[in-house]
Amino acid sequence: METPSRRDLLFQFHGIPPLGTSVSLALQHLVAMIVGCVTPPIMIAGLIGLSQADRVLLIQASLVMSAVSTLLQLFPVGGRFGSGLPVILGVSFAYVPSMQAIAAGGGGVAAIAGAMIVGGVVAVIVGLFVKKIRLLFPPVITGTVVFTIGLSLYPTAINYMAGGTANTAEAAAVKGLPEALVYGSWQNWLVAVFTLVVVMLLNNHAKGVCKLASILLGMLAGYAAALCFGMVSFADVGDAAWFSLPRFMHFGVTFDAPSCVALGLLFAINSIQAIGDFTATTVGGLDRDPTDNELQGGIIAYGVSNILAALFGGLPTATYSQNVGIVTTNKVVNRTVFALTGGFLLLAGISPKFAALLTTIPQCVLGGATITVFSSIAMTGMKLIASQDLTARNTTIVGLSAALGVGISQASGALSQFPDSVTMIFGKSPVVIATLMAVLLNLILPRERG
């Protein structure tokens, strides 16, 4: 039986707490974020049309680099590279709309990697000047951006619930796909809605681990239903190796200026958003505000780790708010717990067999599970906005920015007479215009006199 003093170490950043308790708490963090970490690479791989081997590599690299990013935050280098705070990083949905635009433009993973490198440099610059730059991004701005990200992801979730737009009747005939996988089939919708219902029931009525793992358990239930309809094939799983490492520059790196601008803006926003997660972690788990050095080191490490991820074929990572929520709930902040979570992520990432198994998840199951994630992203943005007084000035900033961002991206051909580079930056993802408009309006609109 462990002594109370060792258990008390769970609530301190340093020290070695009981191993059994640490492992169970680490698994809790892993369950909370693993679905969110692997879904973006699965989506992007499907949109680009990567081969099965490259899909596996993309998922692998994303998992491994999420682990590396997390460990860099936990173990600061030189006192200024890393936050030294109990946080988990993983592939972020915030980048999905812009990555979809880059992928649709034919740039592939190489163009995403190039934009990530530029974005990583932007994040490093934000980290170096964080005290001054953060004044440009009050909650009304970050809230508008997060809200717009959530809105922009809804069509993706609906398309996935219907089975994925690539799975047309013609494609099914060519590929020999079962009729149940054809886009818009009743089987796709039945499995998607079943998955969504399970997630909602667990999220609203379950307790403990079942509530925490509602999305994972919902996906498992949907996966089982998909098996009944013959939607799942394990043909590629048997050929996958048990152990392999991500490959350096496997997808290559290309620098496309519009893609770099679009993703660079998101990196600046997510750098500021990370400040919120760092602050919530320290206030909720350590009963204090983060120091300037912690914020600076955390954002610089976030930028550098994304540059590394780009070189090894991973997708952009960011701090995970759901793991911050666990910290504020159970107050466990010991570094060992979070290092174990990073270790589990690393083990998952170096197994192509595990990554190949993830590629068998039907798109309707992903859609049914992730639409709840996307809705929570939008509502997180609304909460940030509502944390400020909803004055005429603030409602103008939020409403006009979101309207222009979403409206222009949804109006097909609205920028068709402009150069392709303008369309790529401003017309593909609503996040860019919403961000720029929110910052601009915040600077030029006169403030109410109190």
Short description:
Helices cover 69% and strands 1% of the residues. It has 450 residues and is an all-alpha fold.
Question: Which secondary structure elements does this structure contain, and how are they paired or packed?
Answer:
Blueprint: H1 4-8, H2 19-48, H3 52-74, E1 89-91, H4 96-104, H5 108-128, H6 130-133, H7 139-161, H8 169-175, H9 186-205, H10 208-212, H11 214-228, H12 257-286, H13 292-311, E2 317-319, H14 321-330, H15 335-349, H16 352-358, H17 363-386, H18 392-410, H19 420-427, H20 430-444
Antiparallel strand pairs: 1-2
What does this structure look like?
- The protein has a two-stranded antiparallel sheet with strand order 1-2.
- About 70% of the residues lie in helices and about 0% in strands.
- It is globular.
- The N and C termini lie far apart (about 60 Å).
- It is built from 20 helices and two strands.
- The mean pLDDT is about 80.
- Helix 3 packs antiparallel against helix 15 (about 335-350).
- The chain is an all-alpha fold.
Q: How many strand elements?
A: 2
Q: What fraction of residues sit in β-strands?
A: under 5%
Global morphology: globular
Strand order of the largest sheet: 1-2
- Put simply, the count of helices is 20
Radius of gyration: 21 Å
- Oligomeric form: single chain
Q: Would you list the SSEs in sequence order as H and E?
A: HHHEHHHHHHHHHHEHHHHHHH
* Through-space gap between termini: 59 Å
